[in-house]
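Milestone 3.1: sequence recovery, worked example.
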């Protein structure tokens, strides 16, 4: 039994009193000059597939001053948790130095002894997610929100990647990047499967030379309304940088397009793409290729989770149940693959039927 398994209860979430006690001990050890350290008002904020999120209040005395801060701890279960924690911590810290709107980030702890998994801490963002602005709103009424959404997305893609990922290799152009990305995807497919996805990867390999060059950018890789916090003063903070990387901006844009199209319908996906093109002042070329790349990623991640469990796909316990609740969007993703490539994956249809029960 691992440390994480030994602490898990109720679908992978920790009891809130364990979170509070663990964080209190953590802060007392990291800041021995603080007195009367207390962690309270701890709440479970988990909503996504990959990490667990806990809000809490930290109170302590320093230099005869009483300080109280509302913070968030983000826990990383599954494979590669320590590397993911360090990666997100560094990315958010470096983005804040460029003045891109992200939460203030404070600590990273890779020792799973503290909370059962590596974690980072950052400011709790007061306000609401942009998803609340999108829900129940017609596309026409969404226009002001889409304009802001696209502006934030474009601003990210204009950040110098060398400032955020100084350790990563530099690519000459999109062709060089696609060679690297598809070789990495091939290694991942050989290691994790499922092998029947090879036909989609072959399609990408066969079509990559037709793709025009585009700017190489910082990629969020999960940029959607639920990951944009709107503060009471109207300012924004972009969250969830676990998967962030460096590559062609269209990979990022078409992942967002795919999610919007699958969950809410093609018209919203097209509206997001249109808003981005207006913000950039130019048409996005070869979007279809990058949509297929996004489809491949979605099908592989979800298939591994259904076949081998959430941890194998580097997701939190309980993520598979969440996927079952959102099966409708996966049927649409599969339909989009067939529309773009003519490829239908009977094995994926079988997975979805089995998951539906």
């Amino acid at each position: 039994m691992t440390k994480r398994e030994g602490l898990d209860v109720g679908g992978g979430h920790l009891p809130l009193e364990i979170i509070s006690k663990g964080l209190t001990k953590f802060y007392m050890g990291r800041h021995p000059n603080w007195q009367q350290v207390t962690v309270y008002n701890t709440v479970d904020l988990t909503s996504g597939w990959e990490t667990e999120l806990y809000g809490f209040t930290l109170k302590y005395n320093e230099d005869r001053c009483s300080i109280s801060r509302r913070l968030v701890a983000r826990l990383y279960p599954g494979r590669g948790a320590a590397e993911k924690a360090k990666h997100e911590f560094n990315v958010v810290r470096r983005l804040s130095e460029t003045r891109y709107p992200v939460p203030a980030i404070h600590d990273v702890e890779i020792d799973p002894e503290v909370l059962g998994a590596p974690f980072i801490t950052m400011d709790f963002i007061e306000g609401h997610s942009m998803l609340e602005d999108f829900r129940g709103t017609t596309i026409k009424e969404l226009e002001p929100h889409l304009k802001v959404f696209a502006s934030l997305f474009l601003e990210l893609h204009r950040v110098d990647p060398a400032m955020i990922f100084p350790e990563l290799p530099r690519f000459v152009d999109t062709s060089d990047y696609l060679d690297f990305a598809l070789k990495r995807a091939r290694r991942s497919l050989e290691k994790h499967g499922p092998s029947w996805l090879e036909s989609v990867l072959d399609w990408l390999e066969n079509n990559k030379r037709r793709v025009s060059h585009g700017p190489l950018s910082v990629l969020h890789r999960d940029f959607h309304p639920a990951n944009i916090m709107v503060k009471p003063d109207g300012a924004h903070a972009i969250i969830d940088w676990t998967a962030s990387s460096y590559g062609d901006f269209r990979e990022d844009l078409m992942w967002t397009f795919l999610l919007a199209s699958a969950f809410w319908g093609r018209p919203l996906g097209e509206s997001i793409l249109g808003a981005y093109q207006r913000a950039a002042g130019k048409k996005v070329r070869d979007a279809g290729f990058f949509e297929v790349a996004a489809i491949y990623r979605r099908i592989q991640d979800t298939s591994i989770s259904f076949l081998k469990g959430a941890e194998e796909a580097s997701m939190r316990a309980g993520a598979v149940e969440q996927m079952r609740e959102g099966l409708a969007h996966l049927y649409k993703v599969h339909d989009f693959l067939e529309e773009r490539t003519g490829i239908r994956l009977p094995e994926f249809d079988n997975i979805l039927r089995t998951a539906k029960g």
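The first helix runs from residue 3 to 7. The beta strands are 35-44, 52-62, 65-75, 105-109, 119-123, 128-129, 216-219, 228-230, 236-238, 245-248.
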